[in-house]
Design goal:
The structure holds two protein chains of two kinds. In chain A, 10% of the residues lie in helices and 24% in strands. Chain A is mostly beta strands. Helices cover 38% and strands 25% of the residues of chain B. Chain B is built from seven helices and seven strands. Classes of the chains: A mainly beta, B alpha/beta.
């Protein structure tokens, strides 16, 4: 896998939102995750599977 | 609608743990139900799915082989153990799939996204089924379809009572309830039922987000 390859397909990311606040998500490559632009929660991507559970999300550093 | 004394989150966490434990033997454990006609009913429901499909409770991915050509399936489940199997299964089928860990009570999708939402034998294990069904209605397009195959609480008084008793056991051991009133929950969540086939305790329900399409 090259660094340019998306962690989650663009098609899938386009229909996704933060399960906690409905904010827009974007990829984080180091420590792979989908990060919410609004509430800052980071949803980990484990073994290629995005874990979109609010209780599993990293809370934003305040 | 449900005699829920347990806190919803606590119950959901317990269900997830049970399914993670069951993942390696799930298909074996499920085999007797499959032989009693569930497979045929599942296949019949899955074949109705079209377009962009959300499969809630994709589990080990048993339904993936039954989808019509050309659909795109987004499969979710709360159990990592089950999803790893679903992902392996996804590699063996022609339809395009994406697998995510997500909770139907808090779906990570935008409104009006899917043409079809499908769940087979799932809502008996969701802690707050009405909230789950509301979320499904939110992400399905107004002209989309919601397809549910569920076993429910028997309407016969004595059998219903037996299901209530059995449910105390099935809920703790397997994480599902034998006495869910899914049809009532579908209506309570504000979905419009278009068609129901009733076979014993089985319900094949076709619904849509209410007041639309």
């Amino acid at each position: 896998m090259t660094n340019e390859e998306p962690l989650v397909s663009a098609e899938l990311l386009a229909i996704m939102q933060c399960p906690a606040c409905a904010g827009e998500l974007s990829e984080r490559r180091e420590k792979p995750a989908l990060v919410c632009a609004d509430c800052g929660r980071a949803y980990p991507i484990r073994e290629g599977i995005p874990v979109m559970l609010v209780e599993e999300a990293e809370e934003p550093a305040s | 609608m449900e005699p829920d004394n347990l806190d919803v989150a606590t119950e959901q966490a317990a269900v997830t743990r049970r399914y993670n434990r069951l993942a390696s033997i799930y298909n074996l454990y499920d085999a007797p139900m499959e032989m009693m006609g569930t497979r045929k009913r599942r296949k019949r429901m899955v074949e109705k799915a079209s377009g962009e499909v959300l499969e809630v409770g994709v589990g080990t991915g048993k339904n993936l082989a039954h989808y019509a050509d050309g659909v795109h399936v987004v499969g979710i489940d709360v159990s990592t153990g089950m999803l790893q199997r679903a992902r392996n299964q996804a590699k063996t089928v022609p339809v395009r799939t994406n697998i995510l860990e997500a909770d139907v009570q808090e779906l990570p999708f935008e409104d009006n996204t899917f043409d079809t939402a499908l769940a087979t034998c799932v809502f008996c294990s969701v802690a707050d089924p009405v909230q789950g069904l509301r979320e499904v209605a939110r992400v399905v397009r107004p002209d989309g379809r919601i397809l549910l195959l569920e076993h429910v609480r028997p309407t016969n008084r004595i059998l219903g009572w037996m299901a209530d008793v059995a449910s105390a056991v099935t809920r703790r051991v397997f994480g599902f309830r034998a006495n869910r009133r899914t049809e009532e929950n579908v209506a309570a969540a504000g979905l419009e039922i278009i068609d129901v086939s009733r076979h014993g305790i089985w319900r094949e329900i076709v619904a849509r987000p209410q007041g639309t399409g």
